[in-house]
Design brief:
By secondary structure, the chain is α/β, with parallel strands linked by helices. Helices cover 41% and strands 15% of the residues. It has 16 helices and 17 strands. The strands form five sheets. It has an eight-stranded parallel β-barrel, surrounded by four helices. A three-stranded mixed β-sheet has the order 7-9-10, covered by helices on one side. A two-stranded antiparallel sheet has the order 1-17. Strand 9 and strand 10 form a beta hairpin. It is globular, with a radius of gyration of 21 Å.
Length: 447
């Protein structure tokens, strides 16, 4: 049997987000986020009427139990997000002491159990009040995010080891909660969104440097990387794949790591707008270097050329196996993703901040004997081992997720957790994959 070894200091973790596990959406002074508002106003959009306050893991009340589970599992780090509206109920202004107290208790509990906190400032749950004020299309959100970040750094910066400013702005539908004001095929809308989110990121990094003592913590940002392959070797297909990869992925990674927009985005006829020529100088002026980058990998895409379509591209049909969630299963894409950073971005310090496999609660029930997830993890860990041998500067892996998570409009239909959540009792039950991951962590290897 072949063993795939990992370094002794490799960081094994799990990842999740406040709005996907916490619940308690109106408890202790928290106000609605854009997702809370969506569920309140359009409950018919959500699977079986699922709501954050009723069908969720209730981490807000079960965090001690879940952190004890993480300690038993052997996690070295836990990546979670802070809820903006739990800390600043109005999105700006007065701080909610009960929100600060909750995250103080979570962070301290993690440290007591030997688990390094990895905190995302933002994971899709914009305060409803700021959404009504123009959301990411209003440049005021930049100052609001800076002020929110400053509150977090001042309260938690002495204990959080890793910080991320934003999570997956590339997941635009989720990032904006399907706000009808956002049409990302409109160049002015897309580039306004990109411009403001990159400025939010840089404002937060600047605040971090001003408020957290050097050497205590590191800061970066997290986004999804979708390796995009050309449908054929035809130059038009190759160019179509490159522009889509820049449009979805590199606009964030290049903007964050290099302080540069991909040249294709600034010259493509399909993305022309009145202010496009101003963007690069603006980004250069506000760019703040980061300590690491986080990449989320789930699946690849294949793109071909089609004249007349948006960016003259189309999604090509491929026949990879798919998870119940619809993600294409292609482990080599993980290797290609991490090698891309080595080749194109100078081999920065990188964490694989999300990767995981979901099963359908309707088809499989609790799925405690989740052999499919174990097979998925084995193949992806082999690619992770291969990329380490190739010299990529990968420092850790964060599995999504420790418990079943609320997946946007799908509620808790799709189960990503190492621990199953009973929807009625909130009882946690370890899946077979929990024990597999525990063995990998303990032995620093997989088979």
């Amino acid at each position: 049997m072949i063993n795939f070894e990992f370094p002794e200091d490799f960081i094994w973790g799990c990842a999740t987000a406040s709005n996907q596990i916490e619940g308690a959406v109106d408890a202790d002074g928290k106000s609605p986020s854009i997702w809370d508002a969506n569920m309140r106003d359009q409950p018919e959009k959500f699977w079986n009427g699922h709501h954050y306050n009723t069908t969720i893991a209730d981490f807000y009340y079960h965090y001690k139990e879940d952190i004890e589970n993480m300690r038993e599992l052997g996690l070295k780090s836990f990546r979670f997000s802070l809820s903006w509206t739990r800390i600043l109920p109005d999105g700006r202004g007065a701080v909610n002491p009960k929100g600060i107290d909750f995250y103080d208790r979570v962070i301290d509990c993690l440290l007591e159990n030997g688990i390094a906190p990895f905190a995302d400032l933002y994971h899709w749950d914009l305060p409803e009040s700021l959404g009504k004020a123009g959301s990411f299309l209003n440049p005021q959100v930049i100052d609001d995010f800076h002020d929110y970040a400053e509150v977090c750094f001042k309260h938690f910066g002495d204990r959080v080891r890793y910080w991320s400013t934003i999570n997956e702005p590339s997941a635009m539908r989720c990032f904006t909660a399907n706000d009808p004001r956002f049409d990302f095929q409109d160049p002015a809308c897309y580039l306004t969104y990109v411009r403001n989110v990159l400025k939010m990121h840089n404002a937060a990094v600047k605040s971090f440097r001003e408020n957290v003592a050097p050497g205590i913590a590191e800061i970066g940002a997290v986004s999804a990387f979708v390796p995009i392959y050309a449908r054929t070797s035809d130059p038009k297909d190759i160019e179509a794949a490159k522009i889509q990869e820049d449009y979805v992925c590199n606009v964030w990674f290049s903007g964050i790591l290099k302080g540069k927009y991909p040249e294709r985005l600034l010259t493509h006829a399909g993305l022309k707008c009145d202010f496009r020529d101003e963007l690069q100088a603006e980004l250069t002026a506000c760019h703040q270097p980061v300590d690491f980058i986080g990449a989320n990998y789930y699946y690849p895409n294949t793109i071909g050329y089609k004249e007349g379509n948006f960016l003259n591209t189309e999604l090509a049909q491929v026949y990879y196996a798919q998870s119940d969630y619809g993600f294409r299963i292609y482990p080599q894409g993980l290797y290609d993703t991490l090698m891309y950073f080595k080749r194109e971005y100078g081999n920065p310090k990188i964490f694989l901040t999300e990767n995981g496999f979901a099963t359908d609660r309707e088809k499989h029930g609790a799925d405690l004997e989740d052999d499919e997830r174990i097979a998925y993890l084995k193949e992806h860990f082999r690619e992770l081992n291969r990329v380490l041998d190739a010299g990529a500067n990968v420092q850790g892996y964060f599995l999504w997720s420790i418990v079943d998570t609320f997946e946007c409009f799908n509620g808790l239909r799709y189960q990503f957790g190492l621990n199953h959540i009973d929807l009625e009792t909130k009882k946690r039950t370890k899946r077979k994959s929990w024990y597999y991951y525990q063995d990998c962590i303990k032995k620093h290897r997989t088979v």
